[in-house]
Amino acid sequence: MVSVDTAHRSAERAVRTRLLELQRATGLPVVFGGTVPGGGRDGRFAITAQVGTISDALSGLVIRRGRGLGGTALERGVPCRVDDYAAARAITHDYDTMVAEEKLTSIFAFPVRVDGEVRSVLYGAVRSGDPIGDRTLRQAGLVASQLQVDLRGTPTAGLPPVDDGAGDGTRRALVELADIIAATSDARLRERLARIHREFSGAPAAPEPAGDPTAEGPEKLTRRETDVLRLVAVGASNSEIADQLTLSVQTVKAYLRSAMRKLKVRNRTAAVHVGRAAGLF
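Structure (tokenized):
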């Protein structure tokens, strides 16, 4: 049986190796990242590997779920990118001091998912003020896919599997059911569905909603609708989005149709344009 320490060291080595490949593949001056213990169930991870940094500001930095760019990627499980970190409205600014010390401007954070859990987050950044393009993010996706394979055989920090022995099909169904629960406006139906989810997943409480609507204007999208648009924005196909979010292709299409309706546009390209203008990604 592989010890937790051995598994952790193996995962960290894989991250360091893939970061070097990420830098070579993208030409980015700065890349960094770390493994996510327990698939992020404790709500945080640390940056443990860096290439191209000019200070120790990022070394060992603990990133918390939902905070900053990496914490948002951890929470949502999708790539997140900002072209002007200091002015970005879609993230919190808990780590501005460290980012400023490294003189970083445009940054992306790419979560690496294994069996539905985020096991690592890879970052890429520039100091020039230039935006990071979609092609660069797609190249990062290829490296992330390689790291996904590396990590698939590495246990997570000694914690039990999320699904308690359920297969991939069951996990997909439970994730999709949680999304349906979050999108259901009928309170009685939502509670019945939540009870079914608890019975099949063994969870002690109802699943956390996939997203609350944002406060105003064209930004009134659920979290899942925003996640789908984030991936559309980097050129992902419906099947790639489905794999990344552990959904069916039909569910992805449904989220995309709903997002386009709310944004009052007729195609996915226009939806991405409006979403970017609204500061969603």
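Residues 156-166, 203-217 have pLDDT under 50 and may be disordered. The longest strand covers residues 117-125.
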